[in-house]
Amino acid sequence: MSTGELLNALIDKLEEWAVAMVRLLPNLALAVLVIFLGLLAAKVVKNFSKKQLTKFHVDKTITGFLSRILYIAVFVVALVVSLSILNLSGTVASILAGFGILGLALGFAFQDTAANFMSGIYITFNQPFAIGDVIEAKNGTMGNVVDINLRITKIKTFDGPIVYVPNRFLFEDDFTNFTESGQRRLRVACGVSYGDDLDKVEKIVMQALQDTPGRIQNEDITLHWVEFGDSSIDFTANIWLDYTRENKAFVGAKNYAIKALKKAFDENDIMIPFPIRTLDFGIKGGVTFKEEIKESGAWSSNGSERSN
């Protein structure tokens, strides 16, 4: 075949493609329109589902998850319809098969991400904790849950920073949920001197802590004597507090309890001992520190320290 014949064949092929493209333009325009309307419909469905689920008091985490699923589903339907308009049904099947193989490969390559995703689904529907709860992870991270998505959980610590915890750690490891039960015990440790009347101390402690903010009124304040310490008899006062997502006045209650105990003890002459340290300078028994210095010659006759 000569060069001229090859050139004519190429031109004929390009003309065929051009004619096919012109014939395809209406379907292409319709397919683009379907995708655009699909995106618009997906956003409408997402916002509508959020409002309806919120109206029925569905948890925020589940609401966000379901609304995202509906958004993706509507968009995928629009994409399949647009490909069908272009007579690419076979292409759709090939794409789906390709996605399956790609998903399998990515599953092996990103096992941790997949584990986080599955853990996020479990956390979303089983709800071992929810937004607003106070939790403590196994690694010691503690704070308020501010967001839960399919990959990570955001925890705002009491110092302010937000920690991103992968969901698989909260799924596989143990953690503590402080707000799920709705109550939390406040323990205030203290000590009194050996010369104080312990029965009197108990009565004073009970009276002083009665008005602790957030205290559950039908739960009695308890006091447990712990041990004979080096300079005091130690005890803990235990107070049950309301502790929910809306009411987390734990630190304020502890501050109040400590101040109330100190004030009550001062008013009733109850002593809170503090450790006393004795320094041994190697002085023989019965000899004062001043006398020892005089004997060493470091003290002048007028009672002042001799300068070198």
From TrEMBL:
It is a multi-pass membrane protein. Residues 188-271 form the Mechanosensitive ion channel MscS C-terminal domain. It holds the Pfam family MS_channel_2nd. GO terms for cellular component: plasma membrane. SUPFAM superfamilies: Mechanosensitive channel protein MscS (YggB), C-terminal domain, Mechanosensitive channel protein MscS (YggB), transmembrane region, Sm-like ribonucleoproteins. GO terms for molecular function: mechanosensitive monoatomic ion channel activity. Residues 112-179 form the Mechanosensitive ion channel MscS domain. It is found in: Cell membrane. It comes from the Bacteria. The chain crosses the membrane at residues 24-45, 65-86, 92-110. Signal peptide: none annotated. Residues 69-111 form the Mechanosensitive ion channel transmembrane helices 2/3 domain. PANTHER family: SMALL-CONDUCTANCE MECHANOSENSITIVE CHANNEL (PTHR30221:SF1). This is Small conductance mechanosensitive channel. It comes from Mongoliibacter ruber. The lineage of its organism: Bacteria, Pseudomonadati, Bacteroidota, Cytophagia, Cytophagales.
